[in-house]
């Protein structure tokens, strides 16, 4: 919670913190009350937002080295690609874009380009929505959403509804929103304290990612969610 507040100079509300950490509002309020009592956080004049106190100082927002996220994800991501037969990426949210920190090729002989270091629009891909849904710093309320296909979500209100659904079910889906004929599935990676530090996801042709009714395959969703939890567990246990 302190790290989220450190990354939000304008402060955050109880609902923002609850959404980012997956906690009930009453739980968040209780923690904030304790942090306020010990002098770590302060409320603004309206009482609606909290921010770090000057006495506590700033923790900084880049507490997790992207190389650490990649190193913890490599084995799990490789296994997911092998079992699913699809491209797997691990990404993190940086300045409103999803930066790919690890990319596993589809395990076949087709020509493929390495995506490590490239950026993806968070509103138009499963990987992006999986991290955007838990971003309390305001990125989840962009002023303009670019269209990449006719299926790209370009209405801010619709995106917010989509992100709320991601938080509720624990994973994000994509259906021709960034690239025609491709679909994707991604899940958030939670590090220390339950904070979402990135996401892992797979992408492939619609007929392989979705069933005959164009729904994301439940077996692939299960694989992706299990991979995200395994990566997060490794991150948490190492600290």
Automatic annotation (TrEMBL):
Q: Which UniProt keywords apply?
A: DNA-binding, Transcription, Transcription regulation
Pfam families in alphabetical order = HTH_IclR, IclR_C
Span of domain IclR-ED? 55-237
Superkingdom in the source lineage: Bacteria
Q: Single Gene Ontology BP term? A: negative regulation of DNA-templated transcription
Q: SUPFAM superfamilies this protein is in? A: GAF domain-like (SSF55781), Winged helix' DNA-binding domain (SSF46785)
Record-level Gene Ontology MF annotations: DNA binding; DNA-binding transcription factor activity
User: Any idea what this protein is called?
Assistant: IclR family transcriptional regulator
Please list the residue ranges annotated as the HTH iclR-type domain.
1-54
């Amino acid at each position: 919670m302190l790290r989220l507040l450190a990354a939000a100079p304008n402060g955050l509300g109880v609902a923002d913190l609850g959404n980012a950490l997956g906690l009930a509002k009453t739980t968040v309020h209780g923690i904030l009350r304790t942090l306020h009592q010990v002098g770590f956080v302060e409320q603004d004049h309206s009482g609606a937002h909290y921010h770090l106190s000057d006495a506590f100082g700033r923790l900084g927002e880049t507490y997790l080295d992207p190389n650490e996220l990649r190193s913890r994800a490599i084995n799990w991501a490789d296994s997911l690609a092998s079992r699913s037969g699809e491209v797997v990426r691990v990404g993190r949210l940086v300045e409103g874009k999803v930066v790919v920190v690890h990319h596993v090729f589809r395990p076949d002989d087709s020509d493929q380009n390495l995506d490590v270091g490239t950026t993806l629009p968070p509103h138009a891909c499963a990987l992006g929505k999986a991290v955007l849904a838990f971003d309390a710093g305001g990125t989840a309320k962009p002023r303009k959403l670019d269209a990449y296909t006719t299926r790209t979500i370009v209405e801010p209100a619709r995106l917010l509804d989509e992100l709320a659904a991601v938080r509720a079910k624990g994973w994000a889906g994509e259906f021709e929103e960034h690239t025609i004929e491709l679909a994707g599935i991604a899940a958030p990676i939670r590090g220390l304290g339950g904070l979402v530090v990135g996401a892992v996801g797979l992408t492939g042709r619609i007929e392989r990612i979705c069933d005959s009714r164009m729904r994301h395959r439940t077996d692939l969703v299960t694989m992706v969610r299990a991979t995200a939890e395994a990566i997060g567990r490794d991150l948490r246990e190492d600290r």
